[in-house]
Design brief:
The chain has 567 residues and is mainly β. The chain folds into five domains: 225 residues, no CATH class; 85 residues, Immunoglobulin-like; 61 residues, no CATH class; 74 residues, Immunoglobulins (Immunoglobulin-like); 85 residues, Immunoglobulin-like (Sandwich), CATH 2.60.40.3080. 8% of the residues lie in helices and 48% in strands. It is built from four helices and 42 strands. The strands form eleven sheets. Strands 1, 2, 4, 8, 10, 13 and 14 form a seven-stranded antiparallel sheet that branches. The protein has a five-stranded antiparallel sheet with strand order 7-5-9-3-11. The longest helix has 24 residues. The termini are far apart. The N terminus is likely disordered.
């Protein structure tokens, strides 16, 4: 037999003696330790896992999947219904890693018979697997070479027949250099189609059955199972201390792993995580239903405290010492959507967060951006810790108003004005006489004498800026002598405004030859001969629409025009 074989059997014998000692020491709780080392002994190798630490210590992420067939399990004495309470892998050498790293173990019952494909995705491999162990502050001690590094499962695994698949996931991104005191060389055997592995500078999404930066073809590390040994929890329960997988501030919505240290274990114990923004009494809220494992994950959007409620078999709840996860928020606010005003200064957008790096929608990299055109603008800000924030603003454009107006003369000096304009939100008229003004569109004004008037239309846009439109308007419909008659004649109408009837009173007994009623457009609504010097007239106006109307009275001396309105 060659030396390699002697070395392996020496290790196996030592491991067997250790297993016997452990069995003897655990009979009180019916624990049984079983080793599976199917195949031919091979030289120790860092690349077969369960964690990947080579001499260069370059990679800080690794993932492995191991298959144990029903035949292997049966040969080792693991039968359906067995409860696995711990697993361990045999490491050669005395290298250690102080961590902290995040180490997880998943297990699932399976119908698989081989890992025959050259590669497989982590998503497919982990589908249906249960997280049975997690330590967000994992360290790996030195061992008396060779020896097992055991991991007591936080959730014991019940074997239900068929094969067992065991997956490991290791994240040492938070571990300070040096990663370890040396490479981790794992004792392994050659057995066909039992492994997938991968290591990289990020968590590998696809694992290989043949190569993991060196050949791992048909290699699998020696494993130790502990069966039974699961005791019930006792009250009062010890909740332990909350731990988290990060030691510095994280970006918003980054996934972090939570776990407990120093907590009670045993069957019947449940764990329910809670969160709080302030860590004050009454401020904690549940993150979900209770579970049998203390390991969980969270994605805090802001700085958050976490604690775990631990209960043993319906007993009094105890709460772990809280842990805070600090979140480096990057708040970016470009302001509300707005509009530019033609003729005014450009809009200056400010992304804030001095000292960060900036990327605008057009590739600009400054903290501020001058905007002079309508569009959608966004900026992404990265702070010193690498966290990012983003905001978007929609900018419109308000041009100056433009347009023109028409002036249509009716009767009695009445002129109707109508504007045609673009981008006008309001209208202000200046009628060119006695500081008379008006608003709205259309509108009208009654001039007291004939002549030409300089009328100004002020078109006002949404920004409040004004465009002036000037036009000369000639008035020729005011009757000659009308001013004298209006001054001297005692003619009145009431009520004004009217609703049902309009009363006309001829107090001075003028001779009325004709009475005519018109609307603002000059349309005749009523016309009749006057009744001489009759002093009182009554007109039914209930059928008229609301608006402005005129009563025109013809006399031998001229015309009298009275304006009234219907409400």
């Amino acid at each position: 037999m060659n030396m390699k074989g002697n070395n392996y059997f020496f290790r196996a014998a030592k491991a067997l003696l250790l297993g016997v000692a452990l069995l003897a020491g655990h009979q009180r709780v019916n624990a049984q330790t079983i080793t599976i080392n199917t195949g031919t002994a091979a030289s120790d190798l860092y690349a077969v896992g369960p964690i990947y630490i080579s001499t260069t210590m370059f990679y800080k992420y690794s993932r492995f999947a191991y298959l144990y067939t029903q035949a292997e399990l049966a040969a080792a004495g693991i039968t359906s219904g067995s409860t696995i309470s711990a697993v361990g892998w045999m490491k050669g050498g005395s290298s250690s890693s102080a961590g902290p790293s995040n180490f997880k173990i998943y297990m699932k019952n399976s119908s698989a018979t081989a890992y025959a494909a050259s590669s497989e995705t982590w998503t497919n491999l982990s589908s249906g697997a249960s997280l049975v162990y997690q330590n967000a502050s994992q360290s790996f001690p030195a061992t008396a070479s060779p020896n097992y590094i055991p991991f007591t499962l936080s959730t014991p695994f019940v074997y239900s027949g068929g094969a067992i698949e065991i997956l490991t996931e290791w994240d040492a991104s938070a571990t300070p250099a040096p990663l370890a005191t040396g490479s981790f060389e794992w004792v392994n055997t050659t057995v066909p189609d039992r492994i997938y592995g991968g290591a990289n500078s990020t968590a590998p999404a696809s694992l290989s059955s043949t190569s993991n930066n060196t050949s791992i073809d048909d290699r699998r590390p020696v494993i130790q199972f502990t069966l039974g040994g699961v005791t019930g929890c006792t009250n009062p329960v010890t909740p332990g201390t909350s731990t988290v997988s990060v030691t510095t501030a994280v970006c918003p919505n980054t996934s972090v792993n939570l776990n407990l240290n120093g907590n009670s274990t045993g069957s019947g114990i449940t764990f329910e995580w809670e969160r709080s923004a302030t860590n004050t009494a009454g401020s904690y809220t549940s993150m979900g239903a209770s579970q049998t494992s203390p390991a969980t994950s969270a994605q805090p959007a802001t700085t958050t405290w976490y604690r775990c409620k631990v209960v043993c078999s319906g007993g009094t709840a105890a709460y772990s010492t809280p842990v805070q996860v600090q979140v480096a928020n990057v708040s970016v606010n470009l302001g509300n959507d707005t509009s530019l005003c033609e003729g005014r200064s450009p809009l200056v957008l400010n992304a804030g967060n001095a000292g960060g790096t900036y990327l605008w929608n057009d590739g600009a990299t400054g903290q501020t951006k001058s905007v002079s055109a309508a569009g959608t603008y966004w900026v992404q800000v990265t702070n010193a810790t690498g966290c990012q924030g983003r905001d978007t603003i929609v900018v419109g454009f308000n041009p100056l108003a433009s347009g023109s107006f028409t002036a249509t003369e009716a009767t009695g000096g009445l002129v109707n004005f109508a504007a045609t304009a673009s981008n006008a939100s309001s209208y202000f008229w200046q009628f060119g006489v006695n500081n008379a003004t008006g608003t709205g569109n259309p509108t009208s004004y009654t001039y007291g004498s004939n002549g030409s008037y300089n009328v100004t239309l002020n078109l006002i846009n949404a920004c409040g800026d004004t465009t002036k439109v000037n036009q000369s308007v000639t008035v020729a419909s005011v009757p000659v002598g009308l001013k004298d008659i209006l001054k001297d004649a005692a003619v009145s109408i009431y009520p004004n405004p009217a609703k049902e009837v309009l009363m006309l009173e001829n107090a001075s007994g003028l001779l009325f030859e004709q009475i005519k009623m018109t609307d603002v457009l000059g349309k005749v609504i009523y016309s009749d001969k006057g009744k001489g010097t009759q002093k009182n007239y009554t007109f039914n106006v209930s059928h008229l629409s609301a608006g402005v109307y005129f009563l025109e009275i013809s006399t031998p001396s001229g015309r009298i025009v009275k304006q009234f309105s219907i409400k």
